[in-house]
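Task: sequence in, structure out. Protein: Undecaprenyl-diphosphatase.
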Amino acid sequence: MADPTTVTAAFLGLLEGLTEFIPVSSTGHILLAGHFLGFESKGKTFEVVIQLGAVLAVLSVYAAKLWAVFSTAHRDPQALRFIVAVALAFFPAVVIGVLAHDFIKTVLFETPMLIAVMLILGGIVLLLVDRMALTPRYAEAQDVPLGVALKIGFIQCLAMIPGVSRSGSTIVGALLLGVSKRGAAEFSFFLSMPTMAGAFAYDLWKNRDVLDAGALTEIAVGFVVAFVAAVFVVRVLLDYVSRHGYRLFGWWRIIVGVIALVALLLGF
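Result:
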């Protein structure tokens, strides 16, 4: 019979992979699920590190496109500008993430009520933005100007509050700044790679002294399941949002947030 902790790690990995790239807050879902399932990882490292599985999913799906961008950057100004745009968008998360790391992990990650409320508020914002008659100025992720990319990077930092959603904040920010629905989702994919890889490396280093073989096993299981699930999501998400927008995810957030809030108020 499988170890219950391993089964829980696999379930949380599945939750991570399915929710990382849609604007519903994967971290919020994992922290709430962990709270109700009684799952406690050392230093809350599991919840951050398994995100690398989702990063590798994006790398695998976009490997050809990434190679085309980086291999032509020395002679293609648009490719070089796109690399710089993603780097600029990543920079605010580096600074704020390092400065606020301990507060985020020891206070915000330990406040399930806050997570539930942010899920609801984020869902309302997503519904409102999806109903706006926005006129896109930038059809593709590669068209995003440097100044707009930096603004998206600052908006992404709101996702350091669990329940806000990294993909949700970047997508909403990009939409409001003139990027198309498909372009906003794709820019969020590319920005996730340095952001999540950086969070993974920094968190692993910060908690290197508290990880044991059991914790590493949980992380490995969650990592693999997250990778497989995220590959599926990345392959289908762009076409879905191009046709249907983000309304479904707004209602998803509100329903999950309300259920979690009621359960917390009842003492679960």
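The chain has one domain: 4-265.
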